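Cross-check.
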Amino acid sequence: MQKKILLPILISSSVLLTSHFSMAKPGNVECIAPAGAGGGWDFTCRVPAAQVMTQLDLVDSVRVTNMSGAGGGKAYAYVVSERGDDQDLIVAGSTATAARLAQNVYSGFSADDVRWAGALGSDYGVVAVGKDSNFQSLGELINALKDNPRRNSIVGASSKGGWDHLKFLLVAKEAQYPDLSRINYIAFDNGGQALLEVISGRAAAFTGDVSELLSQEKADNIKVLAVLAPERLDVLPDVPTAKELGYDVIGANWRAFYVPKNIPDARYSQWVDIIKNVAESEEWQDLRDKNGLAEFAMYGEEFEEFVSNQVSDIKSISEELGFISQ
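Predicted model, tokenized:
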């Protein structure tokens, strides 16, 4: 069976550099999370930004704004069209952002309309069910979807064809699912809302990321059937990888920040330095590990090139799976 891996993850060997900012440090910063509370973008704004940046005295303060709509498209359009030169604005981004750009979900906008400042962690994908679910394994879930796909809905925080959906479809493809279009995927505004659907029994399974479900897993509200990681994770040591179960899929969702395109180069470089200092700090590394994120650090021009290449890669995958025309 052909090996299916969701896009390479590159780890930077950068070390912590003491920043010598030529500009005054950012003051009252706003971090936009392009979805509601409880998801990965919200986590990116509230933990590495609002918590760690202020703890390290890299900024004066961080105000988090949740801006739902169009799978992150509302926030993207707002930043590009109305806040394009705001030096004290950062926005949470991820592989999901790249996926939507690749599929032209953010109609009329491209990855070049903002500046990608840096990534500081990677969130591996998961498939989970409610604690009272009859499904005890990923194989049982896949078989049920083959028998009755409409009855067994799959929920996630991305739009149809988005990152959460794509991850699960590649697992199903590995399982030789006969018609991927028959899988009943339902999109929600954020991971927290999607998880409530499986906890309540209204949906069969959740496809998302580790950081989105750890609190519900610790509260014994869900069962995690598989992680889409190269090996088992310390935060979920008893959960097998999809590869262990015969589905050779790795799905990683990087967590990052982008900034408005028209800010001065000096401020952009300053944001790159700030994110680099956060990523290499003990404070963030401890929180990163506790929240189930893997190490992934990349900054500045290298990260901008990485995002551009990944948009191209996701476009190819989306064409292969039929979400966009070739």
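The first helix runs from residue 40 to 55. Residues 1-21 have pLDDT under 50 and may be disordered. Passed to J.P. for a second look.
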